[in-house]
Amino acid sequence: MIQRLIFGAGAHGRVVADILNSCRIPLDGYLDDDSCLWGKDIDGTNVLGGLSNTLLELDYSSAQLHVALGKPHLRLHLAKRIQEYGFKLFNAIHSSAIKSESIVLGSGVCICAGVVINPHAVIGDAVIINTGATIDHDCVVGDGVNISPGVHLAGRVYVGEQSFISIGVNVAPRITIGANSILGAGSVVVNDIPSGVLAYGVPAKVIKKLDETYDWSKLL
Q1: I need a labelling partner for 27 at 20 to 30 A (CA). Which of 117, 177, 186, 195 fits?
Q2: Long-range contacts of 196-199, Cβ-Cβ distance < 8 Å, separation of 24 or more
Q3: Which DSSP string do the residues of 42-89 spell out, in sequence order?
Q4: With contact defined as beta carbons under 8 Å apart, do 68 and 47 qualify?
Q5: Which residues are catalytic?
């Protein structure tokens, strides 16, 4: 029997748990590196322990995990680490999501309520596609990307890995968004966006280069 565990017992972890519940898929526990949460009951499911100490006790042939963290870089890093241990990442896809049979999905993907993904889209590993977002035909969404609620990608958009597309962004057809970039809420993107920048506005314009000092609490 498959044992399904969510790493991350915070807000997004609860969203993933709700997605599983919508599909009547049982959840066997949370993992979280915050020791203050160990043993805590979250909506009827226990936090079993931290990642490193718990993985050693699991059977990689039956246990599957999902990394439920909002920060793209950390989510992708931990997803790769879990796979290096030999564990599989499961996809959490809400029962109300609409997705074409021709799409390509990576591992550890979260697809929330009301999402629509149209034909021949390619979705990488550890991607979040949040509530009510739409991904049109032939889009490519790289590993670790976060697509926020109400985002709309027109056809043939490319989003580079670990980028964060904030709530309500609209992206015109054939646009390229570079890796590790952030698009601010409500932006309308009609020109390509380079890698490693913060951009926002109508139309979206590059505001500044990003570095490791960026305060992610502004987004998450």
Answers
A1: 117
A2: none
A3: ETTEEEEE-HHHHHTTS-TTTEEEEE--S-HHHHHHHHHHHHHTTPEE
A4: no
A5: 137
